[in-house]
Design a protein that fits this description.
It comes from Microbacterium imperiale. This is Pentapeptide repeat-containing protein. By secondary structure, the chain is mainly beta. The protein has a 16-stranded parallel beta sheet that branches. Strands 1-2 form a two-stranded antiparallel sheet. The relative contact order is 0.08. The termini are far apart. The longest helix has 8 residues. The chain has two domains: 32 residues, no CATH class; 189 residues, Pectate Lyase C-like (3 Solenoid). A hairpin with a 6-residue loop joins strand 1 and strand 2.
Amino acid sequence: MTGLPRSVLLSGCPPFFRELPGDGRIGADRPIIPASYAESMARPRSHPAPPRITAPDLPRHLVSGRLARHADLTGAAIGIEAGSADGAHARLSESSLSAASVDRIELTGGILSDVHIGDVSAAELVARDGAWRTVTLVGGRLGTLDAGRARWDGVEVRGVRIDYLSAPAAILRDVRFVDCRIGTLDAPGSTLERVQFAGTTVDEFDTRELRGTDLDLRGLDALAFTDVRALRNATVSLRQAEAHAAALAQALGIEVRDDARDERMPR
């Protein structure tokens, strides 16, 4: 017998124990921590952790704005109709950006916060060395999306067709790709943390020296990975593991042959 009150035994909480005088029995006065806190401690952590993404916080009314180098725009509706736009090192916040059939949008070194980019059709969207936080990129088509050495936090790319997505040495944290069609995704030396793919296809994924944490590839249909060894700690589906079994075996030093019997074996 423990000498514990029935209410404590049924509480499911670690109690505060004390020795009862005289007989050495162990008793308890009350739980050592609240029940709600104990339940949260016992709850297992989901893996992979989903990206933490919220929609951009845009004002109800936006004022027309023009993208320019070193521009500082807040609450602006930016429209690009033709040609090219140079917004290198611009700061955009609580704004929207749209473009139809343009050659190049230059956002190198730009800082975007709470920005919605919608239905952009451009040969090039250059965002090298930029910082995007709480940004949605929805619809449209891009020949090249250059995000080399960029930092993305809380970014969702949805329903975009991208021929070439370049993100070498980029840091992507809390990023989701949904219903996208990507030709080549180059991410050598990049860091991907809480990045998720859903309903997205990629022809070739360059994963050399990629570092991933909570990288969820289950919704990605990729024809080839440059280096499957870099997918360590990533989560894939059984179907994906079967599709890339030969590459995974080769990475482990396993020889794979089509024939079931060695020719040197006697008949």
